[in-house]
From TrEMBL:
The chain crosses the membrane at residues 21-38. One of its GO terms (molecular function) is acyltransferase activity. This is Thiolase, C-terminal domain. Keywords: Membrane, Transmembrane, Transmembrane helix. SUPFAM superfamilies: Thiolase-like (SSF53901). InterPro entries: Thiolase-like.
Length: 41
């Protein structure tokens, strides 16, 4: 659920700052990670 919160917050903050893209980087554990690039509206 923390990933959903991070994405939602980043999109809201991106809209507030008028940026086109936001990048989310999350640690999965055991040396793995996930990154996502999202385009804001």
């Amino acid at each position: 659920m923390s990933g959903t919160r991070m994405i939602g917050h980043a999109l809201i903050e991106g809209k507030r700052r008028s940026v086109k893209y936001v990048v989310i980087i999350m640690c999965v554990g055991v040396g793995m990670g996930v990154a996502g690039l999202f385009e804001g509206a």
